[in-house]
Amino acid sequence: MNATAIRTLVLGACMMLACAAAQAGRSCEQKHPTVNGVQRSLALAQETAARLDQTGAQVVAIARVGQDLSPYHLHYSHMGFAYRDGKTWRVVHKLNQCGAARADLYRQGLGEFFMDDPFDYEAGFVVLTPEVQARLLPALRDNTRVARLNTTAYNMVAYPWSVMYQQSNQWALETLAMTQEPAAITRERAQAWLKLHGYEPTTLKISAFKRLGARMTAANIAFDDHPNAKRFTDRIETVTVDSVFAWLTNSGLGGAVQAVR
Amino acid sequence: MSSISIRRALVAVLLSANLVTAHAQPNASDASALSALPIAVSIAAPVMIISASAALTVVAIQASATGSVWVLERASDGARVTLTLSGQVVEGVSVGVGTAVTVTAITTGWVLSTASQAIALIPNEIGAALLYNERITR
After folding, report:
1. Do A63 and A241 form a contact (C-beta atoms < 8 A)?
2. Which residue from B minimizes the CA distance to A21?
3. What pLDDT is recorded for position B86?
4. Domain boundaries, position A199
5. Residue of B26, B107, B130 lying closest to A204 (CB–CB)
6. Domain segments of chain B: what residues?
7. Which residues of A touch B131 (CB under 8 A)?
8. pTM of the entire structure?
9. Domain total for chain A?
10. CB of B16 within 8 A of CB of A62?
């Protein structure tokens, strides 16, 4: 292969890469629901509702297994809060649609929560203490209050101690803090409260090579909110469901994690 | 640039390109496609028509701003059912007049499908209690 041919190939490959980057932010893998998938998702929703009923709780922290995070030694991928609304349960959570750089808050049924193309049909929940529930419940019913600490700019691996971006689990965690501490009316204050109460995020090991690829190809992934000292040593801290659940249990704000399959 | 360094550059670029598909990022807070499965909000017909394994055919379909209205006919006796659905038809699925639809009964209602791909959900009372969708922020 001569130098000209190789140059042409390099150019072609660069163009392929540029195309991929240009599509970032709007690409959304089309998911075709199957009859079996719909049946299993709704069966999980039904079983979860029954289990939540048995707890006697009004509010729980709830999670799903939307992605395979086992390479990162994590189990649940996405969380929100489920609360009792009459005879049914509603989930308030933050969703990033189709890899876009923004995310919004939704109130959904357990059916929609688990129908979103899960990796595994399992729910996890933590029953919060009655005091925590009592302070959180009014906010979950109030669209203005529940959105108070919401930041639209979404980053899947947002740094937990920055307010530049906010991922879904981070919104849930900061909103919990806001409702427990009357002075936590800003994200900075909510984060300070979380630090003070011993919350520790998960540290993911992500190489520079992967970071580069991720940033170039997805609108919803950024690393510029992470401190250089951590970023350049491949340590990416972010709010994961597993870290929130462990903290809730260890701090006494909630009970043990319960799984529903 | 030497031939070797060009080759290395080529390998590096292709490896980077490969990242697009091969290296999933840790999706620590998973995104959502907000499954676009249309859900029946009203049904005009005896519910008996929508029985398990019934073979139905789409005889009319009308889109609206919030969803669509489908008229389905049972092959065996020509009985018809009108469904008002919220949400748009699943992308990549072609549903039109003449489309053959299978009904599968599940605990929470009935799933309409074409070639095992779900195209709509008709919740019963149990299913309806599990479904709700409200966007809080915009």
Report:
1. yes
2. B20
3. 84
4. 32-260
5. B26
6. 39-130
7. 109, 111-112
8. 0.82
9. 1
10. no
